[in-house]
Amino acid sequence: MSDPEILILLEREFGSVPRPEKFTCKDGDPECMDHDAKLHSWTAETLQLKDVTNICYDPWTECLPQGKAYFLPAMARLALEQARPCDDWYAGWLGHRLGFNSELFEFCSASQRGAILEFLDHLLSSRSAIAEEECWLVDLTKARAHLELAIGAAGFAD
To answer: Does an H or E element contain 124, and which?
Structure first.
């Protein structure tokens, strides 16, 4: 699959996920509340690489599954657009997070889970040299294997 084809697949599978009314559990924790405000300030169309590349301060960690599914096509687009990693390779980080996210898997349909697996396959086939150079190849391979096992588990069947 090409980059445009994988993005079309993800948009087809996740593009109809409605924008959530709340992105985090809003438990009163200041960081969680800040993450919720940041997530509300973005749309799938306005999300930029600079919004998601601070791994030390990452709204994704507090984001509920529907919010992750809503933003997934945009995050994949950003990951594939990053021509050369400068500090952190976002595609590696995103692929790792997608491969080990059971809450998102439980939220997703079987076809959506399959689209995530296709995205990880695409990263591994089209960007393996970058993944190896940026020390993400092992993580991405493990994330892909973990996701494949999760998809096959009885608890994730539709």
So the answer is: helix 110-126
